[in-house]
Amino acid sequence: MVEKTTIAAVKKALDSSPKRNFRQSVDLAINLRDVDLSIPKNRIQEDIVLPHGRGKALRICVIGGAELAAKAKDLADLVITPEELGKIADDRKQAKKVASQVDYFIAEAPLMPQIGKRLGIVLAPRGKMPKPIPPGADPAPMIEALRKTVSVRTKDRKTFQAPVGTVDMTPEELAENVDAILKRVTSKLEKGKMNIDSAYVKTTMGPAEKVL
Questions:
Q1: Are the CB atoms for 1 and 207 separated by under 8 Å?
Q2: Euclidean distance between the first and final Cα of the chain, in Å?
Q3: CA angle, corner 130, sides to 128 and 136, nearest 5?
Q4: Which of 28, 41, 147, 170 is most solvent-facing, going by the fewest CB within 10 Å?
Q5: Are 98 and 55 in contact (CB under 8 A)?
Q6: Domain limits, the chain
Q7: So what CATH class is 60-146?
Q8: What is the largest CA-CA distance in the chain?
Q9: Confidence of residue 1 (pLDDT cuts 50, 70, 90)
């Protein structure tokens, strides 16, 4: 059950946001305390499936052989065969373009070492290394989940943010997405909620409203 205060904060953020001629995103900002993020094991790196998705289309790329490519062609936004993978890896400009245009990558598990070696230098810094999928598996469930996914990365910063949707979603939907992220982040902290100093929700152009 989502806290009423969370829904109220989201409603206030939406109501106080100035109207713009573009669809604003809604973000959750979290401030941590008493966590030493210079120690890698304390950092949070989570892919969280939001109950109501991101409110916008995410681009998914599938990298795999003929069988996987055939299954994914009508589901993914981009399909790359092993042969095409080599050409893209050899062209750094093209590799960066693909990395910037795609939100999440899925790759046939046996190709992961090759991808790491050839494209890791482009994908890893962006947090976009592919999710492995077994040969012969149906990519549909993974693609569907990734279209609703948000990646939360603290790196070495105690303040970080993540998108929870867009302004045309309902306050209740956004609040449930906020709740999903807070619960996952809390579960990864040594002292749980005690390690969260504060949390705010805001639209792209609007003021921040306190959630925690």
A1: no
A2: 16
A3: 160
A4: 41
A5: no
A6: 4-55+150-210, 60-146
A7: alpha beta
A8: 53
A9: confident
Q: Which fold has domain 4-55+150-210?
A: Ribulose 1,5 Bisphosphate Carboxylase/Oxygenase (3.30.190)
Report if pTM > 0.85: yes
At 112, list the tokens: 């992961």
Pairwise CA distance, residues 78 & 98, whole Å: 9
Residue 125 has pLDDT above 90, yes or no: yes
CA 136 to chain centre: 26
Q: What are the Cα distances from residue 10, in Å, to 17, 67, 79, 210?
A: 11, 44, 37, 9
Residue 34: CA count within 13 A, CB half-sphere? 10
One DSSP character per residue, the chain reads ---HHHHHHHHHHHHTSPP-SS--EEEEEEEE-S--TTSGGGS-EEEEE-TT--SS---EEEE--HHHHHHHTTTSSEEE-HHHHHHHHH-HHHHHHHHHH-SEEEEEGGGHHHHHHHHHHHHGGGT-PPEEE-TT---HHHHHHHTTEEEEE-TT-SEEEEEEEETTS-HHHHHHHHHHHHHHHHHHSTTGGGGEEEEEEEESSSPPEE--
